[in-house]
């Protein structure tokens, strides 16, 4: 990696302003899942142990530039206090005298959490005055929030104009794994795509046609491809305005000798509901009107598992079916297991955030992959081959 990391800089006696991802789910003031806080601990602890004064910045939810108490980071600061053995202070402001006083009182190895960055209108607009203000509080910026790397905001990108920005451990791991898949993947490189819409994945598929050996397509997006091939898909979800795009993708794949593998059967129902009557239809025989394909079928599970069995690199984004409902979760679970199996044989497997990461969690498999990305949107944009502003802004290593 050609980016500076937190290990490349001297942190002793330094004020470090660190952008972390504390965007945790909160219900009635209680944190319902603290995974993201725990995930940020290694970088925070490292800075503390090195003798830095640590100022933490994060967004939480979408308060849209308003001070909205339901999105306060106070409960997060309290949870952090329980998880780390050093003083953690919290200021209920994002700038001003209170913040400055708290920063000036910080001792080496202590932590200050300031209020939700998105209480500031300028945060998502990457306002230079706001960025300059936050930069003025510290000597070094640490960027450990990969989930926002596809956005140029003041707290991740703007600050880096005024003080050096280095990657934290989470960010470093994301860049390493995603670059490995994008730059020189071990072959065969097999990509598994699913989820709701083809339209979200067009750019990533087009880029992957230059890199992958095989692309397996499940989820609702499979029906747009199957319909483009003239199959009867019944009442399954189809993006009618993307049929031509799907056709072009299939033609380009042929020209580039990338194998696109589409499902051969599907588990269908008449309603998206737990306990609804289910039937398996073979794609070649067609799905009758009134029935919707909601998962890949057992023959497809076998086919996809076989197509994964010799992979040396796997990228997985998007569930194979409506995995939130157990009746339609089998395909996603079995494909996740097939990826885990090949990982055990030395394949590098990357799960691309969002719903796929949630599915991996649901099946208690998250620990079994080489890497589960923390950023759904960011990991997709990375694999689209785009330069992410929140990575571009991190200082480059000089030789
Ligand atoms: P995405 O955000 O694009 O990854 O889409 C994920 C969503 O797609 C999940 O909420 C799934 O329930 C949904 N999904 C997956 N397969 C199907 C399907 N066959 N029909 C309808 N929705 C689906």
UniProtKB/TrEMBL annotation:
Protein residues bound to substrate: 21-23, 36, 59-62, 118, 151
Residues holding ATP: 201, 293, 324, 353-356
Reactions the enzyme catalyzes: (2R)-3-phosphoglycerate + ATP = (2R)-3-phospho-glyceroyl phosphate + ADP
GO MF: ADP binding; ATP binding; phosphoglycerate kinase activity
Main location as per UniProt: cytoplasm
Annotated residues for binding of (2R)-3-phosphoglycerate: 36, 118, 151
Pathway linked to the protein: Carbohydrate degradation; glycolysis; pyruvate from D-glyceraldehyde 3-phosphate: step 2/5
Location of this chain's protein in the cell: Cytoplasm
EC number: 2.7.2.3
GO biological process, alphabetically ordered: gluconeogenesis; glycolytic process
GO cellular component: cytosol
InterPro entries tied to this protein: Phosphoglycerate_kinase, Phosphoglycerate_kinase_CS, Phosphoglycerate_kinase_N, Phosphoglycerate_kinase_sf
Keywords for this protein: ATP-binding, Cytoplasm, Glycolysis, Kinase, Nucleotide-binding, Transferase
Enzyme kind, highest EC tier: transferase
Assembly and oligomerization: Monomer.
PANTHER family, sorted: PHOSPHOGLYCERATE KINASE, PHOSPHOGLYCERATE KINASE 1, CHLOROPLASTIC-RELATED
Family: Belongs to the phosphoglycerate kinase family.
Protein name in UniProt: Phosphoglycerate kinase
Native source organism of the sequence: Defluviitoga tunisiensis
Source lineage: Bacteria, Thermotogati, Thermotogota, Thermotogae, Petrotogales
């Amino acid at each position: 990696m050609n980016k500076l990391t937190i290990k490349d800089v001297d942190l002793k006696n330094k004020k470090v302003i660190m952008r972390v991802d504390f965007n945790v789910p909160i219900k009635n003031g209680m944190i319902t899942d603290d995974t993201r806080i725990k995930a940020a601990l290694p970088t925070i602890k490292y800075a503390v142990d090195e003798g830095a004064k640590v100022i933490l910045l994060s967004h939480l939810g979408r308060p849209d530039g308003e001070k909205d108490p339901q999105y306060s980071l106070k409960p997060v600061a309290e949870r952090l206090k329980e998880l780390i053995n050093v003083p953690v202070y919290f200021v209920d402001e994002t700038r001003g005298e209170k913040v400055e006083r708290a920063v000036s009182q910080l001792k080496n190895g202590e932590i200050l959490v300031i209020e939700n960055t998105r209480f500031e209108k300028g945060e998502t607009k990457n306002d230079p005055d706001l960025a300059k203000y936050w930069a003025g509080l510290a000597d070094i910026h640490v960027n450990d929030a990969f989930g926002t790397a596809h956005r140029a905001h003041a707290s991740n990108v703007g600050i880096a104009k005024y003080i050096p920005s280095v990657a934290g451990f989470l960010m470093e791991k994301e860049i390493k794994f995603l670059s490995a898949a994008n730059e020189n993947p071990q072959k065969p490189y097999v990509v598994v795509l699913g989820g709701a819409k083809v339209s979200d994945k067009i750019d990533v598929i087009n880029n992957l046609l230059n890199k992958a050996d095989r692309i397996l397509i499940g989820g609702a997006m499979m029906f747009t491809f199957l319909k483009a091939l003239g199959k009867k898909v019944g009442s399954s979800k189809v993006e009618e305005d993307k049929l031509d795009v799907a056709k072009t993708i299939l033609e380009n794949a042929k020209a580039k000798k990338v194998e696109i593998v589409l499902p051969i059967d599907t588990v269908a129902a008449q309603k998206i509901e737990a306990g609804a009557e289910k039937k398996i239809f073979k794609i070649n025989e067609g799905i009758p009107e009134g029935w919707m394909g909601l998962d890949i079928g057992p023959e497809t599970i076998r086919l996809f598992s076989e197509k994964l069995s010799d992979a040396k690199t796997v990228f997985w984004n998007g569930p194979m079916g409506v995995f939130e409902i157990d009746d339609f979760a089998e395909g996603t679970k079995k494909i996740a297991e097939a990826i885990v199996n090949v990982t055990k044989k030395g394949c590098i497997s990357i799960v691309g955030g969002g719903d796929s990461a949630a599915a991996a969690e649901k099946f208690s498999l998250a620990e079994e992959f080489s890497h589960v990305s923390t950023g759904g949107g960011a990991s997709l944009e990375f694999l689209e081959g785009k330069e992410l502003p929140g990575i571009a802004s991190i200082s480059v290593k000089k030789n």
